[in-house]
Amino acid sequence: MEHDRPIEAGIALVQHPLDAHWERIRSRLQSEVGDVEYRTWLRQIRLGDADGDEIVLLLPTRFLRDWVRNQYGDRLSALWHAELPAIRRVELQLGADCAIPTPTLSEIETPVSTKAPTANTNAGATGSNARAELAAPLDPRFTFDAFVVGKPNEFAHACARRVADRPSSPGFNPLFLYGGVGLGKTHLMHAMGLELVRGERVSVAYMSAEKFMYRFIAAIRSQSTMEFKEQLRSVDVLMIDDLQFLIGKDNTQEEFFHTFNALVDAGKQIVVSADKSPSDLSGLEDRLRTRLGCGMVADLHATTFELRISILEAKAAASGVAVPPKVLEFLAHKITSNVRELEGALNRMIAHANLFGRPVTLEATTEVLHDILKAHDRRVTIEEIQRKVAEHWNIRLTDMSSARRARAVARPRQVAMFLAKQLTSRSLPEIGRKFGNRDHTTVMHAVSRVTELMGLDTAFAEDVELLRRMLES
Ligand code: ADP
Ligand code: MG
């Protein structure tokens, strides 16, 4: 798991100071881009030498070097510079002495089994070799078991389960999963793939749309498009991740469209993911969009606080490191954008605990995650909070600072103070001042009263929770 990386870094520190920095940058990159992308493009980078303000990174092939330079060059420079301010440039070079032998293009794309592991080692595997080359590896950790289900993703999860149990059922073909970054699309696709290949004679090809394009271009170059088509059309289940990548790539789209039709006509299952719904994927050919929307379309919604807590609980439990509920709540409140970042933050805490053998505490969390938390400090203003709360209970905005003490206005005012304390970094006296120059003890009282009421009255608690969510998003 990721959390043992920094331990390696700790050891490396003794051997070679650059290695330690590189290890940290690597795990940073990995949590930023995700495991699949990391493994496809970045894992093979080796650390070269530093020369003045320049650091050399080595890649085993020209193709990989150019790709990494184009796609990740700036990010690598930025990360190195942040790690070691003296470094201003990252030079990507072909490394003759890379630990890994120079692979061919198909090897770079990490061919992995598309069949159950046993099937691959058997004599009958020859037929699946061609297909195996086509697909990207399925991450064994992205199982259905490891996927935490909550309101925002339960529909998508149910559809994925259904297709994994009975592929090519009418109404579920194609299955189109969509949603924002880091909400679990890739995880669900891998889970389906893992389930489908388990002991069954079902062949699955999973790849990103980007890889689809690369395979296609490579096939054109090597004049093997027929073979490419045949390979693709021989699978039982084709999964294409991040289809939005094909926008503007007309030839690849065309090819995908034909593959799609051939497979569906042959009764094969297609699963596609994208960041938007078919109808919102403008730039995709109309006929393709229409066909994509013909089966089941399921979206993954932004996470809720409850789901974030459940995910953190599950991941903390799996790590074996004791993480206090307070820390989990804190993270679930602060990091709302996506699960990947949430997971990254938790992993960093776990790594920290493992590395230094110190318990995870709230103090350690704010310290270790300083940079992440700062980036996520949403700038909710007290005025915004007052406006939203006043709207919600239908009172006048001026009553937030008026002297009226009727319950109908006093209660919402207390909620606004409570939210101001929770969602902004303002001090109690500062908050008091914004509410008609009230004393900080009034704010303190409001915070404890609202907390108490939330424990007593579920409807009220839900109201406050809803407001918080609205203000946070
Ligand atoms: P997407 O493909 O939608 O950008 P991913 O599937 O790559 O998102 O998810 C990002 C990370 O968050 C992965 O490590 C994944 O395991 C994790 N993740 C997302 N949703 C869940 C969930 N519901 N339960 C457990 N882990 C999740
Ligand atoms: Mg993804």
Care to describe what's here?
The protein is an alpha/beta fold. It has four domains: 16-94, GMP Synthetase, Chain A, domain 3; 133-300, Rossmann fold (3-Layer(aba) Sandwich), CATH 3.40.50.300; 305-375, Orthogonal Bundle (Helicase, Ruva Protein, domain 3); 382-471, Chromosomal Replication Initiator Protein Dnaa, Chain: A. It is 57% helix and 9% strand. It has helices spanning 5-15, 17-33, 35-42, 62-83, 105-108, 117-121, 126-134, 154-165, 185-197, 209-221, 225-233, 250-265, 286-292, 305-319, 325-334, 339-356, 362-368, 370-376, 382-392, 407-423, 428-434, 440-456, 458-472; strands spanning 46-51, 54-59, 89-94, 175-179, 204-208, 237-241, 269-274, 296-300. The strands form two sheets. The chain has a five-stranded parallel beta sheet, sandwiched between helices. Strands 1-2-3 form a three-stranded mixed beta sheet, with helices on one face. Residues 1-15 and 97-132 have low confidence and may be disordered. It binds adenosine-5'-diphosphate and magnesium ion. Residues 34, 142, 146-148, 153, 179, 181-187, 311, 339-340, 343 line the site of adenosine-5'-diphosphate (ADP).
